[in-house]
Amino acid sequence: MDVTAIIDSLNDAQREAVSAPTRSMLVLAGAGSGKTRVLVHRIAWLIKIEHISPHNILAVTFTNKAAKEMRSRVEDLLNISARSMWIGTFHGLAHRLLRQHNKEAKLPDTFQVIDSDDQLRLIKRLMKAMNIDDNRWPPKQVVWYINAQKDEGIRAKHIQETGDLYQQQLLVIYRTYEDLCQRSGLVDFAELLLRAHETLRDNAELLAFYRARFKHVHVDEFQDTNTVQYAWLRLLTEGQDNLFVVGDDDQSIYGWRGAKIENMFNFQQHYPNHLLIRLEQNYRSTGNILKASNALIACNDGRMGKELRTDGGDGDLISLYSAFNEQDEAYFVVERIRKWVAEGNLRSDIAILYRSNAQSRQFEEKLMATGTPYRVYGGLRFFDRMEIKNALAYLFLMLHKDNDSAFERIINTPTRGVGAKTLDDIRQLARSKQISLWQAMIELLKAGHFTPRAENALKGFVQLINSLGEQAEDQELYEQVKYAIEKSGLIEFHKKEKGDKGEARVENLEELVNAARQFEFDEDNEENFSELDLFLAHAALESGDAQADDFEDCVQLMTLHSAKGLEFPLVFMVGLEEGLFPSQQSVDDIARLEEERRLCYVGMTRAMKLLYISYAESRRLYGKENHPRPSRFLKEIPAEQMQEIRLRASVSKPVSTNTKAKVILGTSGRYQLGQRVRHEKFGEGVVLQVDGEGSQERVQINFANVGMKWLMLSYAKLEVV
Q1: I need a labelling partner for 103 at 20 to 30 A (CA). Which of 333, 414, 433, 504 fits?
Q2: CATH of span 318-380+550-665
Q3: Can 318-380+550-665 and 382-543 be said to share one CATH topology?
Q4: Catalytic sites, residue numbers
């Protein structure tokens, strides 16, 4: 492969980044500017032109989906296997490091990764044993506290005791949790990153080895790194001047979960010899969408500076709709969707983006009412489903009997007659002797501690788990999974559930067998672990991934945070009101307000062709009716890029001083939205919605005396006031 084959398809800025001399580099990549393309072509350049061995390449990103895509694109471009490179997520690569060096990491060779659900369950059990009030110290809040400390690289021993009782109790739980995990060989997601960092930091020879191996380190979505992730990268690259990062400070929207936008600025100090390249050529959106987005984000201070542009045309103006309420807003959106589909376009090209999950209900109702297929993006993923987690727990326990999380999950699933008293006795012995629940159960069985009924149930459980392990020795991976599912009784257990839910669970268990059959086992893996061990680790890591499944042709509903990295020809951004977007918590905090503005920027730049923005003059949310002001972000979008759509003859005062904004007038059915009408029985009211056609046409009216009513127009005999 020659030089032209690698860089011919790139624009000037992309070509400069790909072919630059070896040194640390910050590629400031705007939305839709081809950042992953640049990173992949940079790797190809190093291997084919600079003759760097694939063995010396490390590339890291945030999701399994992104890592898989990166690996696939590298292989397609180079026509070689990417196995000798380390390409993966931060969590995946940290797991790989700890597997290979568990002794240096002070972990048993059978350590197990626990996902967020297992971590929460463990915290609940721990707090119960410590007699801690879970109303005052909610377990989810405790999990957040522990993970936040780890993300900052802070162990319990590093935290100073204070006079604050609440904080002191959190610290005590953190210490106890750390001790329990260490004894049990359990590693949560935050621990993966922290332990990997500590292992490299505290083992000079190991650190020297990996510095020598990874001569070129690449990072995608650098703006999303947290403190410990950046510390991990700095350790590997200190003195090497070989860190190549791609990111966008304008798309840093995860501060609430530990991401540090400061890392973008600190990079320039820590790597003073770096090269800064801006990717500003956008290949996604129309000119009007980009001009509006640029103007909005320019209101943030302290940016690194970048302005998106396109060689395409300006396209349509952004459409702004002022709704009476959230129902009117949803009605408007769904009607526009129906029109789009009627013109021969795909539903899957449409996204409805909102700030809060609570906003989705109105849109779901309207979509269902019109028979429009939809999917709420980010619902339960495959490895998060209850039946799958139960099956995986059986597989975990047959391999590693000291896994307390797996034991807790399946000791009585399916129900086998193990009561609460029996479980409490097992837990108490495990705590007092600091042994696993499995070991405690065996000791109590030998001592004849249990009632005959409980003893028979537990002996049957022991026999089942032992037989699963024995049978697995000569089976293929998918056969092991299939055998465990069948013998555990999970199939029959879920068949007993009523309705479609039980059937769906059985189908999911069958799909788990297919997943095991299709699992790609790396024959050259350096860990020397069994296929089942690696499959279970894969499942645990997948369950922590924030990406949703692919889906059929249907409208996609999602939060603005979930939309990052995606693109759609038609986008609806709804609920742009003060207190909702920006959120109430951010309006008095400059840093949080700027992150909200970045989130708005991300939402706008998801749109490829058409962008609709809406707000409601009245909104019932969280059980309260509010009359919010339009979002300040609307005033920051130039009037020249917007057109107001009005479905009524009279509207409230304009959203902003953008008096040049074009106005599109329209009507809905025989009555205009906002029109005052009189009914013989109910009195005067205001038209909120019109639905249906012909004899089925109906209208929703908010009557002053009796509230909201749906009336069939063919019978209502309404009089216009």
Answers
A1: 433
A2: 3.40.50.300
A3: no
A4: 35-36, 220-221, 251, 606
Cα–Cα nearest to 273, from 15, 38, 50, 25 = 25
CB 153 within 8 A of CB 228: yes
User: In what helix (H) or strand (E) does residue 93 lie, and over which residues does it extend?
Assistant: helix 90-100
pLDDT digits (tens, 9 = 90+) for 145-173: 999 999 999 999 999 888 889 999 999 99
Per-residue tokens: 394: 């059986």
> Does residue 181 surpass a pLDDT of 90?
yes
**Of 43, 16, 46, 45, nearest to 28 (Cα)?**
16
Q: Are 637 and 318 in contact (CB under 8 A)?
A: yes
From the candidate CATH numbers 3.40.190.10, 1.10.486.10, 3.40.50.300, 3.40.50.11480, the one assigned to the domain spanning 382-543:
1.10.486.10
Whether the per-residue pLDDT at 656 is higher than 50: the answer is no
Phi, psi of 29 (to 5 degrees): -105, 115
pLDDT tens for each residue of 32-61: 999 999 999 999 999 999 999 999 999 999
- Which residues, 6+ apart, have CB-to-CB distance to 397 below 8 Å? 403, 406, 407, 410, 438, 465
Domain made up of 112-184: CATH architecture: Orthogonal Bundle (1.10)
Closest among 508, 515, 547, 552 to 531, alpha carbons compared: 515
